[in-house]
Amino acid sequence: MASINLIESFQDFKEAENIDRSTLMKVLEDVFKTLLRKKYGSDDNFDVIVNDQTGDLEIFRRRLIVEDGFSEDDLAEVEYSEAIKIEPDYAVGEELYEEVNVFDFGRRAILAAKQTLAARISDLKKNGLLQKYADRVGEIITGEVYQIWRKELMLLDDDGNELLLPKSEQIPSDFFKKGETIRAVVKKVEMRNNTPYIILSRTHPSFLEKLLEIEVPEILDGLIVVRKIVREPGERAKVAVESYDDRIDPVGACVGMKGSRIHGIVRELRNENIDIINFTTNTQLLIQRALTPAKVNRIDVNDEKNHVDVYMDTDQVSLAIGKKGVNIKLAQQLTGYGIDVFRDIKESADFDIDLEEFSDEIEEWVINEFKKVGCDTALSVLDLSVEELIRRTDLEEETVRDVRRILEAEFEEDGSDA
């Protein structure tokens, strides 16, 4: 049989589940009809037959038998005297089917065809993989750590496809070993230099949202809606939820009995603190809830500037700001309002002085740095240690100590005058 075996190429097709038989046939037809056009100038009278089980390929040439001397097109017609040499029973008007020996194309042409076929298969695989994961953006998938590099991890999915988890998309305290199974969300899919890249993330808000869907059936059923999620990966996250059923407490449902539902998510996110708050259209109440765990005394809202001034007891200011300012930063992202926190001294019996009163001795930008962290009065600064002030404001130690000396001197003078 004058055929060429392409079983290796067919095996490539079978391994790519997203490539169906009709696509396979179309690709093969295109590849070999290109060879036919190069050799004969046209592929109109040729049939390509492929056995998709064995990988054997055969090509047949069809020509109409005409009387001797009446052939006008050698590609489409054959004279009777030539036809009966192949098969004596042929008659004028019948079609002559003649098998084409594919090796007549030449070794180079055959190798080129196989290379073209392999390239087409590779492209189909890539496009299939791209489409598969483009449809799964935002979904959680599980992968096995296959390779560990300084800037990223390579994972393999169940089908052996390569996925990337960049360092920037990992929680700071993440630590993985080769062979370990991890979960992440598909962040984006892109083609670089004709190669599909599937980028995963464990820091994106959608990862937390999908984890909540898994743990909280009411979210998956649509009874509870996640209105917004903001995260500082590995540190803290705030989730605003709302219930469409008055009988369901959205916060309680998300946390679960004795924290049973939220604990698994916290472990997955490397002990990230998660504040679940009840969403409301009441701006003041939403800001108050967003500043959890701090307790707010009063709020002054400036809707025109999307800004609020929040007043609270001295011991609550540090809670509102949080470690490295994370809590107030997330509260601002969640509410969409700029938030300044101030120590509420209306009910305080202590004599205090606004920091602005010291503008002749302390530079304005230094005063502003203190005000950003809620220290707008002399006592609010003196109530905190030098180390705490340095950590919160990022000011130099010398600057902080100079400010404290100025403030302490003022109170000493007031005490001596009394």
From TrEMBL:
Single Gene Ontology MF annotation: DNA-binding transcription factor activity
GO BP: any one term: DNA-templated transcription termination
Family matches, as Pfam families: KH_NusA_1st, KH_NusA_2nd, NusA_N, S1
Annotated coiled-coil segments of the chain: none
Family to which the UniProt record says this protein belongs: Belongs to the NusA family.
Subunit structure: Monomer. Binds directly to the core enzyme of the DNA-dependent RNA polymerase and to nascent RNA.
Name of the molecule in the record: Transcription termination/antitermination protein NusA
Organism: Taibaiella chishuiensis
Lineage: Bacteria, Pseudomonadati, Bacteroidota, Chitinophagia, Chitinophagales
